[in-house]
Amino acid sequence: MKLYGSDFSPYARKARVLIIEKNIDCPYVVDDPWAGDSAIPVMNPLGKVPVLELAPGNYLYESPLVVHYLDHLDGKPLPPHDAEGYWAAQRWQALGQGMIDAVIARILESRRPADKQMPEKMQREEMRIARAVKMAGDACDGGPYLVGKTFSLADIVMAVALQYIDIRYPHDWRSAQSALAKWHAGITARQSFMQTMPPGFKRIA
User: According to the model, what pLDDT value does residue 205 have?
Assistant: First the structure.
């Protein structure tokens, strides 16, 4: 089994963090899906990372599915296991995934030729991010974990999303969301986050 991804992909990073947290034997292979010689389109017709190679010719793709598979691989998925906690964790993951999507949409718009850019598109994505961060901040109590008393996929996805904001759309969200900032500082101090930080970037505590 191998995980293919880009060092700068937050989608691949979710899986990489989980692999470290659960000590899964799964080598990580760097492959830029934008490169002309990338093997990613052969494994994933959508041409995106991460791609999880289960066996030659047998692949999983799309980060929620890859993470779900890896989490259940040992038959001991991360808690919470009660219905209320499970769906709370799912909501956090959906919010984090949407934040990542919005940051990437903003990046792609900013990379268009200046005369082709749509300021209203940039503003819309920035508003989406601001609303999502505020919702996360309102729901976070500043404790060590987002759901219950244990580390969960909610912590992985939301922490990756917020750190991706720091990297690709840096602005001071912490001053208005002190509880969220406190939680984030604790989670991103874990070795799984330190080891998967994109090259050239430093963690903001």
Answer: 83
